[in-house]
Every structure is written in C-alpha cells, then in structure tokens.
Design goal:
The complex is a heterodimer.
Chain A (H helix, E strand, L loop, with lengths): L7 E12 L3 E12 L3 E5 L6 H9 L7 E10 L2 E2 L5 H6 L2 E4 L11 H9 L8 H11 L1 H5 L10 H13 L5 E5 L7 H16 L3 E6 L2 H7 L2 E6 L2 E7 H6 L1 H8 L11 H13 L1
Parallel strand pairs in A: 3-8, 3-9, 6-7, 7-8
Antiparallel strand pairs in A: 1-2, 1-4, 4-5, 9-10
Helix pairs in contact in A: 3-6, 7-8, 7-11, 8-11
Chain B lengths: L1 H31 L6 H19 L1 H24 L7 H23 L14 E4 L2 E4 H23 L1 H11 L1 H6 L4 H23 L14 H12 L4 H20 L11 H16 L14
Antiparallel strand pairs in B: 1-2
Helix pairs in contact in B: 1-5, 1-8, 1-9, 1-10, 2-3, 2-4, 2-8, 3-8, 5-6, 5-8, 6-8, 9-10, 9-11, 10-11
Classes of the chains: A alpha/beta, B mainly alpha.
C-alpha cells in the first residue's frame, strides 16, 4: 500500500472484535506493518488500540474478547488461535501499557523473565548484553528491585524485557504514558535505535508528537475503525491530526521530531 | 531447662513438617491464586500409599511411589479441575478443593477403617540425643529432610527459570503471559511441588512418636494452614517461619500443659489458631505478607 518497498510483517484485514459478545471494540480494522518499519497507531481512549494489541499478542481471551471476523497475518501466516507463548516464541512481543514490570523482582530477574519465552535459549545472554548496551542505567541497577526504579527507568526496563525474547515485531503500548517530556524524547530515540537494529515496531500512542516523530507510517483509530492513514510526516501536517492530537495550528509542522515535541509538551507540564 | 530444650527441639521438628505443608499452600496460592484446602488429604494420601506399599516393595521404593503418586494426584486435580476453571471466583475454587479433600479423605478413611497402618520407617522408634536433649530419630530426620527440601526450593525459587517464571506470574499474570511464560505450566509445577512436599510431610508426620497412619493425621494440615496465614499467605519465607512458630508453640503448650492448666485441657490443639489470631491482630497481612495485595 503506502509501503511498497517492504513486504508486510503484519497484516490486519477487516478485523472485528467484541468483548463478552456485546461490546464492539473493533469494527473492521485494516492495518499493515511493513517489514523493518515503525508504524504508529494513534487514537484516543476507547478507540480500540489496546484491543488490537491484545488480538495480536493472543491475550484477548484473558479479557473475554473474541474475534468476530477478519484476519491477522503475521509473517505470512494467520495468528488465529495462537496463544501468547507461541506469539512470543515466533518473535511477536508486546510491551504492555503502564509498564507492568515485576516490581518485586530485580532488574536482572525482570530481564530473565522476558527471555523465558524465547525459542532459542542461547540467545538470552547476547540479548541481555544488547539491552544493557541500549539502557546503561539498567546495567547499573541490575541487582536492584525493579519497583525502586523511576518511572522512566521502569519504562526502559519494560522495553528491555520485551527485547529479551528477540522480537521481530515489537508492539509498544503507550510507552510515553505518565513520563516526563525529556524521558519521552529518550524513549523515541530508543525506538529508533531498536528499529535500526532490525526490529519492526508497532507503536501505539496518545502522544502523537513523539509517535509521528519516529514512525514511518501512521494510522489513526477512531471508535474501532481506521479513520486516517498515511506516511507519518504527511499525517503530522494534516489538519485533522493537528487539531485532534497535536492541539495546535499548522505552523508547527516540524513537531514531528521528538525534540520539538519535547519542548512543546514541556511547557504544558510546567504549567 | 532440659525440658525447655527438648520441647524446643521437638517443636522445631513438628514445625518443619508444618512448614512443608504451609510452603505447598503458599506456592499454590502464588502460582494459581487458589486457596487450597486439600493439603490434608494429599498428606494422608502420601502416607497411606507409603504404608500400604512398604510391605510388598520395601520402604524406600514405597516412599518413592508414594511421593510420585501424591504429586500426580495434585497435578491431576490442577489439570482436570483448577486449570479448566481459570477465572472462576477464588472462593469457588477454594470450596472446590474442600470438596476434593473430603472425597479423598472419605475414601482413604474407608480403606483404613479403624486400623493403624504401620509405615515401616527403617529408623522405627529409635531416639537420638543431641547435646543431652532427646528426640526420636524420625523427628530429627524430619528436620534434616525438611531443611534440605526447603533449602532446595528456595534456591530454585530464586535462581531457576521456573522460580523466576513463578514469581513473575504471581506478581502480574498477564504481563508474564506477554513474556511468553505459560501460566498453565507454572501452575501445574506448583501443584506438583506442593504434592511432593505434602507426601514428605506425611512420611514424617506418621513416624515415631506418632503411632502410624490413621485418618486423623489429615488434621496436621489444619495446623499448617494458620502457619501459612500467619507467615503471610503469599510469602514463601513466611511459610517457613510460620511453620516453625506454630510447631514450637504447639510443643510448648503441650509440654507445659500442667502450668497452663487454667486454660483448659488440650489447649495445645488450638494453639496454632491462637498464635495466628494474635499475629493477625498486630499484622493483618501476616508476618511477611504483601500488604498491598488488594491494590489494583
């Protein structure tokens, strides 16, 4: 589609999901993630972002959700009925919203827990080295209880934990949630770096500035349907996104860069 | 003084047996969020199997079969009932375990009748003297074996993949599932371990000075329950400490019953619960329990 250069690693076609057979969370969603790309998925609360991620990671059943119709294909094969452990073993790893680190475990134990789902045990040690390279602060605190980390460090641990299984496609659910603007900028950098190292990323965000800054393409989800889609740069300039998610006029088009976004959000945070 | 030391030693040994059961209770609670009430019948099942088989196949083989059989029974309950009812209210699952407990207890009671089965421990009714304090060999071995098992458990809990998976799953099941940890597998292993611990507890609970296997040893688990709760329902270390406290308190109350006769005869029987209530009044979540278990 908009991503002709890459074969898609993930294809969501006409996906409809309900909870308890009544609440319709997704109503015919189409999304494509190209191999090696970063795709942003924007949308406000209740738009269905988390439901989509649950469908992809196989945790929908834990929430009594059900796929009514449509199809999800990951690396060419259907995800239907795949449990979370299979998904992780196949390289489809979700970093949950709100970090959800294991606060009573140490930093290193959290990373080990992240590596338990990897298909190949021999990849665990190099994966851990990679995480410590990416987040030196975690290496410094490896024996500390994770609950003692700051919010930003916890988010880094959550992402690092997700990387331990050696994902081919990383699903990030609102990594900027509740974090200081400077840290959000760092998270953006980290996502770029992870992508540079060869992992495709589906980034679910409410912070459109950061998300559009790092993504190649973006989709906007609105009440269970995709309402807008296109290259991130174009979307960042479109009136609708400007109005709905960036909350300012068309003059700040360079808001796509994380840095610019950082400055802008900072003002609001300090207010 | 000598009497005190003797009571202390015997109390610790009783406590070691309680700790094994309490630990199983806590492991199951952590791994599958089930408050299980069938530790008593698992203990009885283990002791019964060992006693029945030790004549035909010898004590050691019988012990092995008894432990494996009890673990298998625990796993069976987990696979056939608990895992299929994932998401059911905690209280329903607890009552379900009471039901299974009663079924096993009734069946074994029927099989034993009014007999007292002899387990045939090779160490029989021998006694040893440790620093001038006497204790039966059986009780001394209980301390040693429980110490080794509990130590091995703590090492595995801290360092093994299973231990990390189990602690991760206990803290946040969904996040653990997202890491590719199979919650069903974690829960099954927990029941297996609890079954092993219950059978070993049964093996020693039925040795000297206890006469042998009667359905009444099922009640040992009733004393281990307060041990788990006073330690803090979700704390493995608490199960160990709670078990030892209850064991020593029970032994002391029984040993000094003449001095505390004003509390009534047989006070020793209720001591576990008295201690539990006293601890919970001061620390409602137990000695080492997580205080914010209800926070979402």
């Amino acid at each position: 589609m908009m991503d002709e250069t890459h074969a898609p690693i993930l294809e969501v076609r006409d996906l409809a999901v309900t909870y308890g057979g009544v609440v319709q969370a997704l109503r015919g969603v189409d999304i494509t993630v190209g191999e090696g790309s970063v795709v942003a998925l924007l949308g406000s609360n209740g738009a269905g972002k988390t439901t989509l991620l649950r469908t992809l990671s196989g945790t929908l059943k834990l929430h009594k959700g059900r796929v009514e119709s449509g199809e999800v294909r990951y690396r060419g094969s259907s995800l239907k009925g795949r449990d979370p452990a299979r998904c992780v073993a196949d390289g489809l790893v979700q970093v949950p919203e709100g970090r959800r680190i294991f606060s009573r475990l140490t930093v290193e134990e959290n990373l080990k827990a992240g590596g338990l789902g990897a298909k190949d045990k021999s990849t665990r040690a190099p994966a851990q080295e990679r995480v410590y390279d990416l987040f030196p602060v975690l290496a410094d605190r490896r024996t500390q209880r994770a609950g003692l980390l700051s919010g930003g460090e916890q988010q880094m641990l959550a992402i690092g934990r997700g990387l331990m299984a050696g994902p081919k496609l990383l699903l990030l659910d609102e990594p900027s949630l509740g974090l200081a603007p400077r840290i959000i900028g760092q998270i953006g950098e980290v996502i770029r770096e992870i992508n540079r190292q060869g992992t495709s990323v589906l980034l679910v965000e409410q912070n459109a500035t950061m998300a559009l800054g790092v993504a190649d393409t973006a989709f906007v989800l609105d009440v269970g349907k995709v309402s807008l889609q296109g290259p991130a740069v174009e979307l960042a300039q479109s009136d609708a996104v400007q109005r709905l998610y960036l909350g300012h006029g068309a003059e700040e088009t360079e808001a796509a860069a994380p840095r610019a976004g950082t400055r802008k959000t900072l003002a609001r945070w300090k207010a | 003084m000598n009497q005190f030391l003797s009571l202390l030693l015997n109390g610790l040994s009783l406590g070691a047996i309680y700790a094994l059961i309490a630990l199983g209770f806590v492991i199951i609670f952590k791994a599958s969020e089930v408050v299980t009430f069938m530790q008593g019948s698992l203990l009885l099942l283990g002791a019964y199997l060992i006693a029945r088989l030790s004549e035909p196949i010898g004590f050691w083989a019988a012990a092995a079969v008894g432990i494996v059989g009890t673990a298998a029974a625990a796993v069976l309950v987990e696979r056939l009932l608990i895992s299929r009812l994932r998401g059911a209210p905690v209280i329903s699952l607890a009552i379900l375990t009471i039901g299974v407990d009663l079924i096993i207890l009734t069946e074994i009671t029927r099989r034993i009748g009014s007999d007292i089965l002899n387990v045939g421990h090779p160490w029989g009714g021998d006694a040893v003297s440790i620093g001038g304090v006497g204790i039966t060999t059986n009780r001394a071995l209980a301390i040693v074996v429980a110490g080794i098992l509990i130590g091995a458990f703590f090492i595995a809990f801290k360092f093994s993949s299973w231990g990390i998976a189990m602690r991760a799953a206990a803290e946040d099941g969904e996040a653990a599932a997202l890491m590719g940890i199979r919650l069903g597998w974690v829960s099954m292993v927990a029941w297996l371990v609890a079954g092993v611990l219950a059978a070993v507890a049964g093996l020693f609970a039925t040795g000297s000075p206890t006469p042998g296997v009667t359905p009444a040893i099922w009640a040992v688990a009733l004393a281990a329950l307060p041990a788990a709760i006073l330690g803090g329902l979700d704390s493995t270390g608490g199960a160990l400490v709670g078990g030892l406290i209850i064991g020593v308190a029970t032994a002391m109350a029984a040993g000094y019953q003449d001095q505390i006769a004003f509390l009534g005869r047989g006070f020793g029987e209720v001591v576990p619960y008295v201690v539990m209530v006293a601890v919970l009044l001061v620390r409602p979540s137990g000695l080492f329990g997580t205080r914010d278990v209800t926070r979402v």
